[in-house]
Design a protein that fits this description.
The complex is a heterodimer of chains A (about 475) and B (about 130). Chain A has about 475 residues and is of the alpha/beta class. Helices cover about 60% and strands about 5% of the residues of chain A. Chain B is mostly helical. Chain B has one domain.
Chain lengths: ~475, ~130
């Protein structure tokens, strides 16, 4: 068997590993083994690449390669291991962004290496696509990270003449791309790189914090396509197939995620959420009063209930209160109260985020009910304890056709006998929409950090 | 390689369909791990960055290639490790919820043994 054939075969095995990874990640039972199949495929492909005869032209290039890989491993593994579970979404954004950046750099460097006017037009097209999409993914992921890490506001950022500015940048990119196709000029390619980075930033700025997960999924798909473009540039089947797999599956995943929020993808990307909200929220709900209670009152309410639903949201995650929530559930269970958790698919900042956090706190799996299982139980539930969640229990999603979240499936906490909100303040949730349920006569509010409030409730239940 | 541009386009089109079909049914709790897992897979750009850096000429290309390999390595190791950490949280699922079944004794044993083996293999793949 020739070396070239052996390489093709090894890369084919790697690709099968990637397909098995995606397939495995579609079911809870095989997810972990699937991910390992992907990692094994990756290790195999990278290790084999080292053995290729043409992989390095000079000794110092091999040295640089080894240094870069060792440094990447030395930074990447601790970063990924040490990050808190609540910060996972940001980490995914970062690791996606660097992948997009790498794809853009491959396209640029290969363009420089081929160089000059001898380069075929379709090759330039592949390079342009790789640079454009890779850079948008890189810059967009950086902004997404900043939003989730709260380095900047999670609210949609809008400014005057936003649409004309976007159109101008888009037109500029198109013009430069065409000029580069004709002239194969390096300065023009650099200009395209810069404008693509700008596009990545202005594309993400108007997207609100609650929608950022869907955006990350979209950018993930973009990076896949940029990798596929690099594959075309380098004539590599491996990169084309792996990049395209991610591009296509990522696009479908993005659609599934927006469906879980009951919204269309264009609606998420292009409707600057916040502006609509203030307009509709302000008029209907003025200075209406809410009822706030003490932790002792609520402790008694919980302790003498028969059935309690805990509805966790991002506030629980951010306060690291998942362990305290479990303590409260155990304290209630010890008194014979039936406790379950009602998990909205997009509670937290990423779909599935809440399941992961509660599983980390050793909450028994059979107490975690998906929305469809939990909702039929709500009518017979005495107390719905909403911890740091807001939009996912907002009845406006069912009753107010003008609301930005109209159509999103919600946890029907409003059907429970009593509703208790643990909130930091009266500030509305990520979507920025006021919640009618807060003003309901059967609703009690307990203000404060979710963890502190839960700790007080554990004590109150104990002495009730 | 003998394949021309049309050969690559063929591969591309087929991969679009495979990618689409292979994730057609995902429960919402796995959306985040799937996103993270596919994020790790596009780290395959590492192979491309290695080829580019290996054949770089001059300091500019060396520098670009070096940064590219570094970023791609971060993508690969970070992607797989983060995904594995997320999935670690799901490992109690089959044993916990379905333990009531009569046949669950042997299944549970298999799962926990697999889990222990997995974490060892995960470390190996990461290094």
């Amino acid at each position: 068997m020739s070396r070239g054939t052996a390489t093709d075969l090894v890369y084919l095995i790697a690709i099968v590993g990637f397909i098995l990874a995606l397939k495995g990640l579609s079911s809870p039972r095989r997810a972990r083994i699937g991910n390992l199949a992907g990692a094994a495929g990756m290790l195999l492909a990278v290790a084999w690449t080292f053995s290729l005869p043409g992989v390095y032209a000079h000794e110092h290039n091999l040295l640089l390669m080894i240094i870069a890989i060792v440094a990447g491993v030395a930074i990447g593994i601790p970063a990924a291991r040490l990050v808190k579970m609540t910060a996972m979404p940001q980490m995914v954004a970062i690791f996606n962004g660097v992948g997009g950046g790498a794809a853009a750099l491959v396209s640029i460097t290969e363009f420089l290496a081929i160089g000059g006017k001898s380069i075929a037009v379709y090759k330039i097209f592949e390079v342009l696509f790789g640079v454009l999409v890779g850079s948008v993914s890189f810059a967009g992921s950086a902004i997404a990270f900043a939003k989730l890490q709260e380095l900047m506001t999670g609210r949609p950022i809008t400014y005057p003449a936003q649409q004309p500015v976007n159109a101008l940048v888009g037109a500029g990119i198109l013009a430069i791309a065409i000029a580069t196709l004709v002239t194969a000029s390096t300065p023009l390619l650099v200009a395209l790189l810069v404008l693509s980075l700008v596009l990545g930033v202005i594309f993400v700025l108007p997207i609100g914090g609650a929608d950022v997960p869907v955006l990350i999924s979209l950018l993930n798909s973009f990076t896949g396509l940029a990798v596929a473009a690099s594959g075309f540039t380098l004539n590599s089947d491996l990169l084309i197939v792996a990049g395209t797999l991610v591009g296509a599956s990522g696009m479908l995943l993005t659609r599934m995620m927006s469906q879980a929020m009951g919204r269309s993808l264009p609606n998420i990307l292009f409707s600057a959420f916040g502006s609509v909200v203030t307009a509709s929220g302000g008029e209907s709900l003025g200075d209406r009063s809410v009822r706030s209670g003490t932790s002792d009152d609520i402790g008694v309410l919980l302790a003498y209930a028969r059935k309690v639903a805990i509805v966790p949201g991002y506030g629980l995650a951010v306060a690291q209160a998942q362990h305290t929530a479990r303590e409260l559930a155990e304290a209630l269970a010890a008194r014979g109260v039936e406790v379950y958790y009602a998990i909205h698919p997009v509670a937290g900042r990423m779909p599935g985020h809440m399941n992961v956090l509660l599983a980390e706190a050793n909450v028994p799996y059979d107490q975690l009910l998906e929305m469809d299982e939990a909702n039929p139980q709500m009518a017979t539930t005495d107390v719905a304890l909403v911890v740091g969640a807001n939009d996912v229990v907002n009845p406006a999603a069912k009753t107010t056709p003008g609301s930005p979240i109209y159509g999103m499936p919600i946890i029907n906490a409003d059907q429970a006998g009593n509703v208790v909100f643990l909130k930091r303040s009266m500030r509305p949730g990520f979507a920025g929409i006021d919640n009618e349920l807060l003003y309901d006569p059967k609703t009690t509010l307990l203000f404060g950090d979710a963890k502190d409030s839960l700790t007080k409730l554990v004590a109150a239940v104990g002495s009730a | 390689m003998s394949t021309g541009i049309l050969g690559y386009v063929t591969i591309f089109v087929l991969a679009v369909f495979v990618g689409y079909e292979v994730v057609s049914k995902v429960p919402s709790i796995l959306h985040t791990p799937l996103m993270s897992g596919s994020n790790a897979i596009h780290g395959i750009i590492l192979v491309g960055t290695m080829i580019v850096l290996g054949n770089a000429h001059g300091p500019a290309q060396d520098a670009l290639g070096f940064v590219a390999v570094l970023l791609a390595t971060l993508n690969v190791v970070g992607g797989f490790v983060v995904t594995d950490r997320m999935l670690e949280m799901f490992k109690a699922r089959p044993g916990g919820a379905r333990a009531a079944r009569p046949s669950a004794g042997s299944t549970g044993g298999d799962v926990s043994a697999g889990g222990a083996g997995d974490s060892g293999a995960g470390g190996g793949a990461g290094a």
